[in-house]
Amino acid sequence: MDGDICRVVEKEEDQFYLETLDLKIPTTFEVQAPESMKVSESDKLICTTEGSCKMDYTYESSDPNIVSVDETGGLNAWKAGTATITITAETIGVTKQVTITVDGSQYEDAEVFSKVNLEGAASDNIHLPHYSSYYGSTTKSYLAQTADGGYQRAEYINDKIVVETYDSKLNLVSSKNVAAELPIFGGIYIGENYNYAVFGQMNKEESDECEVFRFVKYDKNWNRLAQCSVKGANTYIPFDAGGLSMTETDGKLYIHTCHEMYQSDDGYHHQANCSFVVNEEDMTLVDSYTGVMNLGEGYVSHSFMQLIRTDGEYIYRVDLGDAYPRGIAFTMTKTGDKLQDPSLYGSLFTIDGNTGYNYTGYSLTGLELSEEYYLVAGLGVEKLNDDQKNIFISSSRKAEPSGNRTWITNYVNGADVDVTTPKLVKITKNQFLLMWEEKASGKQNYTTKMMLMNADGSRTSKVYSAPLALSECQPICDTDGNVVWYVTDNGKPVIIKINPYCLEEVSKETGGSLEENTGGNNGGNTGGNTGGNTGGNISWGDGDIDWDWGFDPKPDNSDTDKTENTQTKPQKTIKVGKPKITLKRSKTKIQVQFKKVKNAKKYQIQYATNKKFKKAKSKTTTKLKYTIKGLKKNKKYYVRVRGVNGKKKGSWSAVKKK
After folding, report:
1. Domain with 580 in it
2. Do 33 and 45 contact (CB within 8 A), yes or no?
3. Of 123, 250, 358, 428, which is the most exposed, with the fewest CB atoms less than 10 Å away?
């Protein structure tokens, strides 16, 4: 130390590093903030001090309905007006304020609501999906905006994909039918340069030569270009009891779905998630997992809904699980890494009830990403025997996931309000709209509820209602900033547009109302994630380290068949023993040897250059001796082994190093 100057020397292997730090505690700070913003814009407060010391700050807006601010200083402009942001550095007891004026002139003469009857094919997607809180389903209705400002509807109707293109004035320009190439429909993805459809078929003979998934590539006019076929894949029935979700980045198409697997030793076809990565250029399969694993490798048993998104840096997946785990499972995998090697994994929160009991009381319908946060939306219950479902949001920093669960509605048991699954709509990179339908039990008419949310999932508007039906079609945000979707009710489609920044006007024009209360004490909250249930303690696993350091899924003995009975089948317990290992080292090889382990049919050998098994590599063998080759000279390696019997995995051996 030299006054406030600290010099730190650090040794890493054979290198020394010198770092000089100014540890002088600041007495004040400076704030960089915009003086003005336009409605729909996002910005950020930047706080700086002299020296190397960094401080934590708290932020508060005088009117979050005009300008909201999150815990990172992120700003969102929602409507015209002026708001004061208070910034406090509690460490030094200093507070500063900035005033921001929001210009909303671009919406002064804008149309806030429209509903247009289209000349398209008849179908029936109104008020869907309406999940039973048992199983999910695939989506058949899709809408996208075309490059010229029109819209394209793609819907699976009567064993074919009906594609309708409309101009910007919603006149029908063209219509075509795209053949379904296999008997079971999986889903559609409207990509940046291409469109994709997924089909599958049952594999009754459990043949590894049977094509069970087909990913088909089309141009933007839905002319067929190529396909990727997946055979066998441990699949008895594709897409069963769950859904399908897709995303793309860096020339790769990511598909997250589910399947009933080949019959296991207990005589059942168990259900789980599965994922695939396809090279978009040549439609080759570059990665997948379809076997029985654990959450540390992305596997969820049973998975009754699957969602996937990317921010270009990571692939985010969430699953609704009833067994391992029983909760909302979350994995985050770096783009380019193997799907089975997530950087982070765990449960956002656990769900009440016994492991493997198919009824969860939950449905999972939304996953979106802001610049710094992820948001998950769905419908659920606090206790398994609750008769009233409510809307929830789970959100957190991408780099620091936590198990929060905020109840957006808080209807109590006996309220007899039918709350449907929510639609989470991304309207800008950091702004979101949440919509859902409600009706009194036994009544026919639904009311759509609408509210705005910040990048962190906190509520920033009142809840407004409008007599506008939602449907299976996920709403999109078009280039004019409107939220758009279509509805069919055993007839031709109706396309609906609303301006998300004019919800009060939308409500008035459609004869709706302001809903100050949504069944509980958080009805008027416009701040952060209050009124929620944190779902208990959460243990997160680092994908680069051992199970013992993270979420412990236990050996996967999820032996509940997907039936309405939902009772766990009595099973014979198989316990795989724990091996004892010895190592012999040569320059670039390590020979691993062990004695036969009780109930083990094969052995998994894992090795790494660190004791936490960061970036570990794995080998599988049926022999009691194995030689690891291609090692670096004079580099120390850590080794461990465990026995495997089908889905059952034993404990790891003690770690040895050579």
Report:
1. 574-657
2. yes
3. 250
